[in-house]
Fold this sequence. Notes:
Chain A is an alpha+beta fold. Chain A has 15 helices and eight strands.
Amino acid sequence: MLGMGLLLVAIGYVLGLYFFGNAIGGLIIALIVWAVLNLVAFLQGDHILLGISRAKKISRDDLPRLYNVVEEMKIASGLEKMPDIYIIDDPSLNAFATGRDSNKAAVAITSGLLQKLNRDELQGVIAHEIAHIKNRDVLLMVICGVLLGTIVILAWYASRIMFFGAVAGGRRSSSGGGGGGLIILAVGIVLMILAPIMAQLIYFAVSRKREYLADASSALYTRYPEGLASALEKLGASTAQLKSANKATAPMYIINPFRKKGMSASNLSSTHPPLSERIHILRSMAGGASLADYDQSYRQVHKVGGGVLPDPALTATGAVGLRAATPEAVQEEPSKVERVRETSDLMWRGSDYKTITCDCGTRLRVPPKFKASSVRCPHCGRIHRL
Amino acid sequence: MSLGIIIIIGVVIVLAIVFIAIYNKLVRLRNQVKNAWAQIDVQLKRRYDLIPNLVETVKGYTKHERETLEAVTQARNLAQQAASSGAGTRAKAEGALDAALSRLLAVVERYPDLKANQNFLALQEELTSTENKIGFSRQFYNDSVLTYNNQTQVFPSTLIASMTGFKADEFFEVTEAAEREAPKVSFT
Lengths: 386, 188
């Protein structure tokens, strides 16, 4: 983020030198554009994200299992307030967190995810999302996104003006400084071309680092990295794409909603690290579930270079043991069929359909437009009052 | 004013700022520990509330399990009484309740009718989740205590901690015996 800030300052500096003859003017323009974009970002708020994704808010009674899992992770992370829970009716497997303020946060998951994952896996995914909230990643990515936007806008306009100015004879270089003006022009054009690309790369790198941190925190909260690992495996195996995702919100999802098949390892222009690598790191955490263990596992997988987590986070906790998988007999896990039913019941209810279970076992879905006072079961012929 | 005096004043100001920062951090950490402890309390109380319901539901379906049910009720009452004592005693009572409950849930395996009961299933989901929440709040409490204790023991904040009366806190540890007693699940 510091790198992006410096880039922005550099652009402002060169702009000022070129157009006004001193650096201050350019810096002020950069500051104004940045402030305006910030204002826009903060006024828009989170409604945009949830609105775009067509998410529905649910309460404890709708889905006690999901609500309980979220509450468990809220407690494990020490978050002060329970985040809102949203369901996106979409067969793809994905989840995201939103909320710049950790007291007004929300997690959203697709109905597909709710159907496919067992409790341990769901816990891993929710812990990852809660970690995004707890680590203030939403705020960080908004700030980074605004910086990126400012740099792109400034560079775009400045490079056009500079280019046409130079073609038309370069009013500044001919009038005053001569050689000095030319050098500034050359530096300026190179900077205007490189800055947006560099800013974009920094943005992606920050996003990937936060993903690693969220994965590590998920392992720490659940004490069970295998849950998230096996969830990621299922997420990677599914080919359905989330319809309502957009580019600006991509870093907040648990896996990149725009990923393509066969993306190469550690792709520089991706918001998320490759899934196979994330799974591999989680599975290599043999020693324990602390952040330091995750960091060590990351080093093992990468062989070269240092760790991936910020240093203060590493020293915060001591040794942390792993827990065993929840045994099947104790878990009382609803089977996959039951989970699908539970979720689809919820989706029907969400769109105001009534569900009547007939004595013969048939389920009748009554649409909100249906006005008659009773309905006949098409299977056995019993009459149900509405 | 000579340079020496200005330097001394500067050093005093810097020291004061460092002192305030460390003191505030200690207060924040201690509050977090208190908060985490309260969170465990909330979940334990929730479990006390759930148990009578569970016992009632199970009673309706089972005939020969009076001993197990009584053991659960008794362990619950003992744990509730221990609620006002220190972390150590309390952990012991809760450990006993854990053991009694897991015996009950193991017994329930023998009654398919009970396991199909919607009411029981909802109760069981609540109970399982409450157990998880107790585990996670204990985990968070212990993490908080560890961070807080570290802060009271490392230099230089240990100086400020001992000056202003910050003492290391007790961990919440479940007694080994109770924890190790795995639920005996029999498939007969």
